[in-house]
Amino acid sequence: RKSMKGATMDIKLVREIKKVGVGALHRWQAKQNPPTILTHLNSADLRTVNFVNAELTNVDFSGADLRGVSFGAARIQGCIFRGADLQGANLSCVTFLSPPPTSIFSLRADFSGADLRGALLAGVDFDHVSFEGADLRGVRLFTIGTELANANIAGADLRGTVLDKPPRPTS
User: Fold this and answer.
1) Which of 60, 134, 160, 167 is spaced 20 to 30 A from 14 at the CA atom?
2) Whose CA is closest to 42, among 91, 81, 99?
3) What is the phi/psi pair of residue 40, to 5°?
4) pTM, rounded to two decimals
């Protein structure tokens, strides 16, 4: 275990996730008794992990290296990505679920201060998702199926962000 900013990240868990995939995270969370409020993967190097179609609930990815990672069609609830490096990440068709009424979280996800340069954000509802102070330079944000109502983008760097219709498939 490694202590980071008052939280503890389980190095063995990170190795297992990188080795066998996101299923290791689900098994670890299921074994926690009592259930953990937050699973700490902060500052972990997770560049090789495939989060496509993953169910991610209450995971702290603060400061994690998630460059180029695909979260395509993942279901995310109460996760924190503060200061995480998501350069070139694919968040297409991600579903951000509202936290349950008993949750300590009011946001569906927090990307405050995260680096999302060049990320692909298509077909996503960002209602109650925070990008406060995030680096969104060069992000490709396709307008069809993407919802930004109630998203917090205060202080975010939006230079070079592309707001466009998705490209037509080529045959």
Assistant:
1) 134
2) 81
3) -95, 110
4) 0.80
